[in-house]
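anyone else get weird line breaks when pasting these?? whatever heres mine. first is seq + C-alpha cells for prot A
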Amino acid sequence: MPDSRFRIASIRKLAETLDAKPMTIYHYVPSKDAILDGMIDHVFAEIELPPTDQPWRDAIVVRCHSMREVLARHPWAAPLMERRTTPGPALLRHHDVVLGCFRRAGLSLGLVGHAYAVVDAFLYVFAIQEASLPATAGDDMADLAGSIMEQMPPDLYPRLTEFTIGRVLQPGYDFGDEFGVGINLILDGLARAVDDQRTP
C-alpha cells in the first residue's frame, strides 16, 4: 500500500511517486476512487473487531481503542472512512461485527443506529482533533499552554486561566486520556438506555 502520508492528488502524481507511467497504474486499477477504496479497506482491516467472547461493553471498548490507534497511524483516513460508495470486504465485515455486538447487548435496531452513530462520531472527531493539536502532553503541552497564557490577561479569561493552571499544567496531564473517559461516558448512557428499553 502507499505510504499513509501520501495524498492522492491524481493518477499522474501517483505514477510519478511510484516511478511508473499513468497507463501502468490504470492496468491495475480503473480510477483514483478505486485506489481510495482499497486504501480505506486496508485501514479497516487493521482495526481489531469487537471480541465475541467478551461482554458487549468491553468488546466495544477494545474496538474503539484499536480504531483510535489505527487512525493515529493513518491520519489522512478519518475524513474518508464513511464516504466510500463501493466498500470493500474489510469495511463491510467491520460494520457487520460491530452491529452484531450492539445487538448482542439487547439494543433495538433504533438504539443500535443511535449507538453506532454517536460512538463513531466521537471516534472520528477525536482522531481528527488529536492529530491536529500542536501538543497533547508533557513538556510540549506545558510550553504551549504557557505561551498561550502569556498572551491572555487572566482577569479577562478567568475560567480559561483556572482550567489551564488547575488541569492542563498539572503533572501527568495528557489530552489523550480524555478518549477513554469519553468512550465510557457514551457507553454509560447506552447501558442506561438498554435498561430503560427493558423496563415495561
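and prot B, same format (seq, then C-alpha cells)
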Amino acid sequence: MNAAKSSTATATTATAEPRPYVGRFAPTPSGDLHLGSLYTAAASYLDARAQRGRWLLRVEDLDRPREVAGSAERILRTLERFGFEWDGEVMRQSDRMEHYLGALQSLAARGLTYECSCSRRQLEDESRYPGTCRERPAVRGVATATRLRVEPGLIMFSDRIQGTYRQDVAAAAGDVILKRRDAVIAYLLAVVLDDAAQGVTHTVRGADLLDNTPRQIYLQQLLGLAPPSYAHVPVLTEPDDSKLAKSKRSVKLDEHSELPQLIAVFSLLGLAPPDALAAASIAEAWAWAIGRWGIHRVPKRLNMRVAV
C-alpha cells in the first residue's frame, strides 16, 4: 500500500458509528456502461441488499465537456435491464451547484483555500503540487483553480477489502484542487458533499480510487462530516493491464445476454456461481447472489485481469 511519511505527521484514524446501511452507485455519463462498471455496481448493490440496506443512484454530471448526450438515460435503462432496483430519486450533481459553491465559500472564510494560477503544463514534471501559489498571489488576468490548504498529518482508515491504508495527504498530493481552472467543481469536493447529503454509510467502489480516499477523509474532517465505511474492489484490467473501462472493446454491454454477463460478474466477485444459475431468471440470480454475498469473498487485490 502507498504510505506517505512525514516527520511532522500525526496519525488520524477515520472511524464511523454504526448507522442504518445506505450504499450508492455514482456513474459518470461519459459513455455507456461496460463490464467494469457493471461489476462495481453489482458489488455495491449486493453489499447493500445483503445487509437489508438502501441503495441509491447518483449521476456525476459536473464535467459537461466529457458528458455524452443521452448517456445518463442509457445508463439507467441498462441498470434496469440487469435487474438493479434503486431507492428514491436519482441525484444529479448538476442540480447541486449552490451546495458546492456554499462549501467553497465556507472554507475560504476559514482561510482554508486559496486561488492558484498554475497551469497543468507548469506542473507536468511535479509528482505533487509544490505549493507555488500558496504564499503568493495568483497571477492576475489568468484563470485560477481553488486549492485546499493541506497540512501534514497521517490519515489512516480500514478498508473492508484492502485492509489498513495510510497516507500523508500533504506529502502525497500537496494542496488539492476543489474547483478547477475551468470552473468545474472537482470530484473531491462533490463526492464528499454528495455522500453526506445522501446519508451514505458504505461506499463500495474501484481500487483506482483508493489513494483518493484519504483526501476525502481529510476534507470530511474539515467539514465536520462523518466518513462512510469504504471497500475498494479490484479494478478489472485487460491482459496488458490497461483499465477495462478504457477499452474500446468493452464500452457497451450486450443487451441480449444480461444473465450470462451478470453471472460472470458474480464469479469475478468471488461468489462461485453454480452452472444451474444459467437457467435462472435475473431476479432469481440476484436472490442467489444476495444470499451468497460476503465482502470477504472479494479478492484482496488492486487489479484483476479478465479476458474480453
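btw re prot B: The first strand starts at residue 11 and ends at 13. Residues 26 and 58 are 5 Å apart (CA to CA).
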